[in-house]
Amino acid sequence: MKKKVVSLLLVAAMIMTMLAGCGKDSGSTDTGSSDDGDGSVTKTEIGEYTEEDPYHLVFSYVEFYEQDDDARAAVQDAINAKMIPEYHIEVELLPLQYADYQSTIQLMLSGGDDLDVMPIFYTFASSWINMGGIYDMAEFMDTEEGKAIVEALGEENANVGSMNGVLYGFPANKESVELGGLCMRADVCDELGLTEKYGLEANKDAYDGTYYDWSVAEEIFAAVKAARPEMTPLYMYNSDQLVRFKFFDELVDGFGVLDWEADHASTKVVNKFETETYKEAVTMLADWYDKGYIFEDAATDTQGTASMMKAGNTFSYLTAIKPGFLAEAEAANGGKCYAMYFGDHKEGGLSTTNVSFFNTGISANSQDPEMAFKFVSALYADAELMNLWQNGIEDTNYKVLEDGTAFFVEGEDGSNYAYHQNTGWFMGNQFNSYVWNDGSKSADYWTLLQSHNDWAEYSPAFGFMWDSTDYSTEVTALQNALETYRAALHTGSVGLDKVDETIQKLNDALYAAGLQDVMDAKQEQLDKWLAEQK
Amino acid sequence: MISKAKKMKRYLPLYLMFLPGAIYLLINNYIPMAGLVVAFKKYNIRQGIFGSAWAGLKNFEFLFATPDAWVVTRNTILYNLVFIVLNTVLGILFAIFICDTLNKKLRKMYQSAILFPFLMSAVILSYIVYAFLSQSTGIANNSILPALGLDPVKWYSEAKYWPFILVFVNTWKGIGYGCLIYIAGINGIDLAYYEAAKLDGATKWQQIKCITIPSLAPTVITLTLMSVGRIFYSDFGLFYQVPRNSGMIYSTTNVIDTYVYRGLMEQSNVGMSAAAGFYQSVVGFALVLTANFIVKKFSKENALF
Amino acid sequence: MREKPFSRFQILANTSMIVWTIIVILPFILLFMSSITDENTLVANGYSFIPGKIAADAYVYIIKAGDKILKAYGVSILVTFVGTILNVLLSALMAYPLSIKNLPGRKFLNFFVFFTMLFNGGIVPSYLMWTGVFHIKDTLFAQLLPNLLLSAWNVMMIRTYFTTSIPDSLYEAAEIDGASQTKIFLSIVMPLGKPILVTMGTFAGLSYWNDWTNGLYYIVRNRDLYNVQNLLNQMVSNIQYLSTSTSSNVTSAASNIPSTAIQMAIAFVAILPIMLIFPTFQKYYSKGLTMGGVKG
Fold first, then answer.
1. In three state form, how does the secondary structure of B212-275 look?
2. Into which family does the record put it (chain C) (predicted)?
3. Of all helices (H) and strands (E), which one includes residue C287?
4. What's the pLDDT tens digit per position in A264-293?
């Protein structure tokens, strides 16, 4: 029998060597992209790319809306018809699903698969950088391409996607400040005289500095509740919507934050869940919940605002509002709506993660990061590329209207289009592409959207990125502790009589999970970063 | 004694039969097991699994260092124990019922009924459970409880109900597995035994006690031993999707798998998830060795190995 | 069996099983009813056994996406069919030697199989193995090979059945007749093991049918190779992620995703084929293969 065992072990050993060898292969190709700057070695080995022999580049992104596979293939051809002669880059579009995006990218990174340009969600940045999955783009910033990006994003935003000096990604060009309030049913507002009282208008969604205190919202809910008892005044669901009430600079994970509402200039890392700001917000929510203003199932519901509004028994929901918001909301909600801004300050806070929610970066697997960077830069500087990727082929997937905006071609609309990514806020520079005319937007829409950012007040820690790698154990425990109480507190379903007790329990759990250590480390990193900025 | 060569000749075909499966297990299971080493590493993609720096036991800390660790461990073990017992007892009971159903059509119907829940994916199952238990629109709160004259219940915020709900859902979904195996087992019993018993005037209960159950014992032991090996694992869909990730009921719904998932959801830590798997396996391994040892004491032939 | 149809035992057995059948079927009815309920009614009034307002929108949506769903069905059916056959064959081949009581090294081999149930290296090394060495990524093999082709669990169950339900005397008799091991396997083990092989085959088939992880990990570029579960999972998990994101841009993308009724309809469509096939398949479970029958 020994023989049997031995032979089995032999087979195992054989396959092992195969596997190890394979690992080594992908390892050695990767050395070209290690950050000690020998990227040029790969370059000379592979040689210059030509039109006949272009660099094959894999561009992965999340497809938030469903696209037709054939149409996407046609768009890819059109992109290459442009990119190959101009950039010597042959692009392969690799659309991913939002739900699986993390696992797919992580496997591709680990497996050494071909992957050049990829989206980086801010919470994964720290671990992906630390496991060597992301290429540091800092070295390219002095090139033509780098300058083009700075020009598109501005110096500050172009550098916001960096951690410990590693430039891992560029944010999309978008309205970053999240000013918000309520989106309400127009018919009910009209009926209850709210329209007149607050000067609500159809399609009025641009912020002009008019905002209301949340106590006004409470009056509105009370009026709705009285007039339409069968209607839920405010729909909330199982997601963290506290940000709609109070702005904290979350310093990435929310464990240790800057209490911006209390002091705009403070750089002291505090425990969010112990602040008065936090207590005020969750107490108000609990009160609303007890009064029947908030959707009863808020703590567990995931249906989303659109289906609730469509169903007809919901009056309003919390949302970020920006120019052009209402047209999109009305299309989704299936009826006329009004938007109203609420808050405690005229201006909105802006933190690192507001800007760099999603970032466009280069994978460490890239065979030639320099070429990949050319493509990244093109996403910001080359309007034609952005238009192709976002809107498809002109006159096939969209047409340009007289006023310079774009829309679906004849016979296609939002329900049956073949290709329309509609995700300019996700990667690249949408301000470079056509404005999509959904009936409410004109060609100067991008200027309008950019002006939304004028209301932003930057957090003093803007640009700072917390590196949590050494605190994974604590963050895991903190995450679990927070999740235990989050939904109940942040949707009000905990009830007024239990609010204080639950906040206390949450804080006890967080400290037991090591919050103090995390906060101390965060403060130290922040102080160091602040000193460097001076 | 048979000579060695003869012995070899006799058994060689058997080893050859074993070989294809063994090769598959080597490829699919054993070689990737080398990846367990990641649990002790600070994983770096460029250095690869073996080249990454050692991290000692750092990746394991989160499994023990927190107050929640104890709760999730307790929940995991208790639920699994209940599942094992319930699925065995009900599985055998239903198998006996089904095998002895005289009407062929009914028998087919029952067999389908125990199997169909297997087809329900966890996400869909969570919708169905929600359809019953939702606070505002649920069937329980809107129809059943008022009919019984009871007050509505906030199901998703009351931890005390969830052990029952989860056990029920798990039984609903999982009973078919053991049950079908027991049906196969019962079908494999030589009918002659029952004939003989009947001639001796044995009652139905006596037949079950003296023939059916003893014949199923090896199957029960195998199944139980295997389940013990996985006692630190749990059905992620059941514990994550079905309670709809409601925090207020974590004290009775959080298990090791969901704890790990929630903790690592916003991070991307290969080392820590490997550590969790390693920990679950090692405990299962230790328990199964013990259980197997005990089984061996009582009936050698029923031990797993 | 020679028993009175209305004996106490029969009544007990049938009542219990009918109650259980109802408990099992009710959720399926609810699932179907929700899929034909008007979406707005569903959201406003919740799920109900009697739909307030019937609408076939969900099924219209599915038919419109017909091409994709048909392709996915094709993949599911093909992979389930081939996978199940291979699985049963491999498992039986592996289980038989393990069931031979005096096979030298049996203990080790048992352990070899069992050990794979406890430890696994996680997805990263498996991914490296399957994509790096076997290059199954974006091929049909990706749906067929990883994890599902052989389960140690099934092998152990089949082994136990062989050990307990096939009497040693049969083997002895066959060996005296000079039958080879192959012959014994084909003419004794396979026929006598039919109840367990059919049972474990059912489970293997269901694992193939229900699986979405292989598609998730190994099918990235060629979505034509998605199976039914991948399609379903893509929709339902996307909606959960999208609608609960903290980014307002992401949540607005969620408004475009199929409604609850459509998810229910797709879930129902994914289940339906098995619900239809299984009852016709059931004759193989039935009794009739008694020891006596084979001996005679």
1. HHHHHHHHHHHHHHHHHHCCCCCCHHHHHHCCCCCHHHHHHHCCHHHHHHHHHCCCCCHHHHHH
2. Belongs to the binding-protein-dependent transport system permease family.
3. none
4. 999 999 999 999 999 999 999 999 999 999
The DSSP call for residue A142 is T
Nearest of A190, A191, A245, A193 to residue A214 by alpha carbon: A245
A184: β partners: A316, A338
CATH number of the domain encompassing residue A325: 3.40.190.10
Tell me the residue range of the domain where A334 lies. Answer: 180-353
Is C235 within 8 Å of C264 (Cβ atoms)? no
- For tokens 């049996």, name the residue: C106
Give the CATH number of the domain where residue C144 resides: 1.10.3720.10
**3-state SS assignment for residue A494:** coil
The structure tokens listed for A298 are 């808020």
Domain annotation for chain B: domains and CATH numbers: 59-118+156-298 (1.10.3720.10)
ipTM: 0.91
Q: Is C216 domain-assigned?
A: yes
Asked if residue A329 is part of any domain, the answer here is: yes
Rounded Cα gap, residues B191 and A514, in angstroms: 65
Q: Is the pTM of this model over 0.80?
A: yes
- The answer to whether position C7 is within a domain reads no
Are B87 and B171 within 8 A, CB to CB? Answer: yes
Q: Is the pLDDT of residue B1 over 60?
A: no
What's the pLDDT tens digit per position in A493-517? 999 999 999 999 999 999 999 999 9
Query: What total number of domains does chain C contain?
Result: 1
Burial class (CB in 10 A: 0-12, 13-18, 19+), A47: exposed
Q: Which of A4, A110, A237 sits opposite C105 (nearest CB)?
A: A4
Residue C133, Cα to own-chain centre: how many angstroms?
Answer: 27
| Residue A304 included in any domain | yes
CA dihedral C272, C277, C283, C285 (to 10 degrees): -60
Tell me, yes or no, whether A196 lies in a domain. yes
Q: Helix, strand or coil for residue B136?
A: coil
Two tokens, residue C178: 């000079």
Most C CBs within 10 A among B26, B119, B136, hence the mutation to make, goes to B119
Residue A298 placed within a domain = yes
For residue B14, give the chain C residue with the closest CA: C97
Query: Which of A25, A64, A118 would you mutate first to test chain C, the one with the most C CBs within 10 A?
Result: A64
Q: Closest chain C residue to B20 measured between Cα atoms?
A: C90
> What pLDDT, on a 0 to 100 scale, did the predictor assign at position C4?
64
Q: What is the pLDDT of residues C178-210, one digit of tens each?
A: 888 889 999 999 988 988 999 999 999 999 999
Pairing of the two strands A170-171 and A180-185: unpaired
Can you list the residues of chain A whose pLDDT is less than 50? 1, 18, 20-46
Mind telling me how many Å the CA of A179 is from chain B's nearest CA?
A: 25
What is the pLDDT at residue B165?
A: 96
Count of domains forming chain A: 1
In the predicted model, what is the mean pLDDT of residues C59-74? 85
Chain B (230-269) residues lying within 8 Å, Cβ to Cβ, of chain C: 230
Q: How far is B71 from chain C (nearest CA, A)?
A: 23
pLDDT (0 to 100) of residue C246? 65
Q: What is the DSSP letter of A54?
A: P
- Structural domain includes residue C3: no
User: How large is the average pLDDT for residues C54-83?
Assistant: 88
Looking up tokens 């049909």 gives: C140
Side chain identity at residue B116, one-letter code: F
Residues of B in contact with A19 (CB under 8 A): 31, 34
* Helices of type H across A32-100: 39-46, 69-87
Residue C171 is assigned to a structural domain of this protein: yes
Report whether pLDDT(B86) > 50.
yes
Judge: A110–C128 Cβ closer than 8 Å, yes or no.
yes
Domain around C196: 66-295
